[in-house]
Design goal:
The chain is an all-alpha fold. The protein has one domain: Orthogonal Bundle (MetI-like fold), CATH 1.10.3720. It is 71% helix and 0% strand. Helix 3 packs across helix 7, helix 3 runs antiparallel to helix 10 and helix 12 packs antiparallel against helix 13. The longest helix has 32 residues.
């Protein structure tokens, strides 16, 4: 019996390793290609260790378009969206988890129902609202529709539900207000969920393409994905330089994940995601 248990463990590890390798191969290929000369990308046989490392692909690619401006625009938008989701989803989750009011269940149901609506369905009405506010070609026009997410509200509600209400009642007896309870009792115990919400909202905003494409028409406000697509559509640009730009696009999300990795791993064990 112990033999089969150990065998099952090793088979599971082997499958996980194979799955991880399958996910990593495209990233490794993209990174290797970013250091190759232009013609190497279309060879039938991949040269996984370049004979000559072309580090100049990165500065050459960055000089062909204002990618630093695109990078800054995406950073401003993604950090603002991440902060907005952390704040508003926490407030909404706290209200739905620890307060009882008529129609609270219906409110939660309506919020969750929006998860079934893709962006393409709400694109036109959202654009009309943004246009009415005269936010076309502005940062607030890109950011405002993304500041709160239904999944984030649900995640924070489920996380806050696991916190015993006795803590909150004791704080109220001691004279603490709701904001103090939220900041000093709820938030410290929800750090794993907040880390998961932060990385998800940052990643989704950083990768967002359709909405910025809809609301932005000037080059000064283009985000990094828009610049990357525009760079790829210009046939004079070497394909390996396109890979270099794509590699740079993955760095912010990767670095944020590394910073929040420990909290994220704890967050996947939350009762709300089981």
């Amino acid at each position: 019996m112990r033999y089969f248990s150990g065998l099952r463990k090793w088979v599971g590890l082997a499958l996980l390793a194979a799955l991880a390798f399958a996910f990593l191969v495209p990233i490794l290929w993209m990174t290797v290609m970013s250091f190759q000369e232009g013609g190497k990308m279309f060879d039938l046989r991949t040269e996984w260790i370049p004979a000559v490392w072309h580090f100049e692909n990165y500065p050459n690619a960055m000089s062909r378009a204002p990618f630093l401006q695109y990078f800054l625009n995406s950073g401003i938008v993604s950090l603002t969206v991440m902060l907005g989701n952390v704040v508003f989803c926490t407030l909404a989750g706290y209200g739905l988890a620890k307060f009882r009011f008529p129609g609270s269940g219906l409110v939660l149901l309506l919020i969750l129902s929006t998860l079934m609506l893709p962006l393409e369905v709400t694109l036109v009405p959202t654009f009309l609202i943004v246009h009415k506010f005269e936010w076309i070609n502005t940062y607030q026009g890109i950011v405002a529709p993304l500041l709160i997410d239904a999944f984030g509200v649900f995640l924070m509600r489920q996380s806050i539900l696991s916190i015993p209400s006795d803590y909150i009642e004791a704080a109220r007896i001691d004279g603490a207000g709701e904001l103090r309870i939220l900041l000093q009792i709820i938030v410290p115990q929800c750090l794993p969920a907040l880390s998961v919400l932060a990385i998800f909202s940052f990643r989704d905003s950083w990768d967002q393409f359709l909405w910025p494409l809809t609301v932005v028409s000037i080059d000064a406000l283009r985000t990094y994905p828009l610049g990357l697509v525009q760079f790829g559509e210009e046939y004079g640009n070497p394909a390996t330089e396109q890979m270099a730009i794509a590699v740079l696009a993955t760095l912010p999300v990767f670095l944020l994940f590394m910073v929040l990795q420990r909290s994220i791993n704890r967050g996947f064990g939350l009762s709300g995601l089981k």
